[in-house]
Design goal:
Chain lengths: 236, 220
């Protein structure tokens, strides 16, 4: 069996990066981001990237790092608010942006991984999202055609992996990660813990190992909380 | 007296029915969770991949791997389940969610809603809003009746880029509640006034035609 476990982010990305490539990066906000692989992409100096991710990081964190170094040419995302740097680069024309409804984004990625080049959805009918796209009626309702998304490289974050590349995510850090893992020509996963095969319950695998080409243990695992919201414990 | 934000949320909460699966937007909609009526059991969905949102965590117990769609830390319930973004939106787009409550910048008499962008001013993105209005069975909008400039946000037709076309069922503002007959291509009916708000005031502050429910017309 091919050895999937690599010993560093640099080793895991070796030979995979080239200018003008398309990269998918998992995460919702700063939850479930591949925190060790993103800085490695930054340090490689690769440029003119098209990046597909729900968001574009937040000040100082996540994909923000690749915006700061101007390595991203185009972003495909659903929500890029609370990110001053993004706004600046977009408004000055340095950065291209393709906004997708979040469900359309997720489904385009799922379709990419499943070999389905296009599908119809009601989301976006009658809005700018549907402009220039075929619209068709099914059972009295209008639907717009959306196409698949695939990437040269998908980078994902999971909680645990076994050495066969089977992945388990933790809580809402799962988000786009399992969908993106299926849609990369090459998928590199970083995880908090790598365990021997046989240690994970086969009934509880979220991403089967077939989708994971390379694997590392996270070297950065900061898990920054964007909006810490708590309640006071009532004292007796 | 017009309703406060909290009172608008409380009024919206009356639309929750026992057994409903509900997605709440950010802002006033999030407050609706504080007013779920006694004896009504609803399950809240978070589009980042959680069904069954629990209360905010106690101090010191927040988990960065457990957030809602507004990126706030939350907790689990015994009935909670996790899933991917594609599964989450299959749930939303497949018509499995009973009700969504969202904010808006504009709503029109034909059921159109605009709540995601102001061209040239605001670049944020629609997130899950377009999916929610297109896929959820019932769409309720909660918002101020007028914008900061005092102009009606209830219009004959929206001027801002749309989030969805002919999708709104109910509008709850600080002044009143209006039903939208989206099945018939639109048409607003005023069904309830906030305490001490008059029909004349709503007429003066609404830039869309509407009819008045018979029981309200009688009272006026």
């Amino acid at each position: 069996m091919t050895q999937k476990v690599y010993d560093s982010p640099a080793a895991a990305l070796d030979g995979l990066l080239f200018d003008g490539m398309t990269i998918m990066s998992g995460g919702f906000g700063l939850s479930g981001n591949p925190e060790s692989l993103i800085p490695q992409i930054r340090d490689s100096g690769v440029k003119n990237l098209t990046v597909i991710s729900n968001n574009a990081g937040a000040d100082g964190f996540g994909l923000w790092m690749l915006l700061q170094t101007r390595q991203i040419k185009k972003m495909i995302a659903s929500y890029v608010g609370e990110n001053k740097l993004f706004e600046q680069q977009y408004l000055s024309g340095e950065l291209e942006l393709e906004l997708n409804p979040q469900g359309t984004l997720a489904e385009r990625i799922r379709a990419g991984g499943a070999g389905i080049p296009a599908f119809y959805t009601r989301t976006g009918v009658g809005t700018v999202v549907a402009e220039g796209k075929p619209v068709e009626e099914f059972e009295g309702q209008l639907y717009v055609r959306e196409t698949w998304l695939r990437a040269d490289l998908a980078i994902v974050k999971a909680w645990k992996a076994d050495t066969a590349g089977n992945l388990v995510y933790r809580r809402t850090a799962r988000n786009f990660n399992p969908n993106m893992a299926t849609a990369g020509k090459v998928t590199v996963a970083e995880v908090e813990e790598i365990v021997p095969v046989g240690s994970l319950d086969p009934e509880a695998i979220h991403t089967p190992g077939i989708y994971v080409d390379r694997l590392i243990k996270s070297t950065i695992n900061e898990k920054k909380i964007e909006k810490l919201t708590e309640r006071k414990r009532e004292t007796a | 007296m017009a309703w406060t934000r909290e009172q608008v949320a409380a009024r919206a909460a009356k639309e929750l029915k026992d057994g409903f699966y509900v997605n709440l937007g950010i802002g006033i909609p999030t407050l609706v969770a504080n007013y779920i009526p006694e004896g009504v059991d609803v399950t809240l969905q978070s589009e980042n991949g959680l069904l069954g949102i629990g209360p905010f965590p106690y101090e010191g117990e927040a988990d960065p791997d457990l957030i809602n769609a507004g990126k706030q830390t939350i907790t689990l319930l015994p009935s909670s389940s996790f899933f991917s973004s594609a599964d989450s939106f299959a749930m939303i787009r497949g018509g499995h969610i009973d009700l969504t409550i969202l904010g808006a910048m504009e709503v029109a008499a034909n059921g159109d809603i605009a709540n995601w962008t102001i061209p040239g001013k605001m670049v944020k993105g629609m997130g899950g809003a377009m999916d929610l209005v297109a896929g959820v069975k019932k769409v309720i909008v909660v918002m101020d009746h007028a914008n900061k400039a005092g102009e009606s946000k209830v219009l004959e037709r929206c001027s801002l880029p749309l989030t969805g076309q002919g999708v709104v069922d109910l509008i709850i503002t600080d002044l009143c509640v209006m039903a939208c007959d989206k099945a018939k291509g639109g048409g607003l009916t005023l069904i309830e006034l906030a305490p001490d708000v008059t029909l004349d005031e709503v007429k003066a502050k609404t830039a869309a035609p509407f009819t008045v429910a018979p029981e309200l017309a009688k009272a006026a």
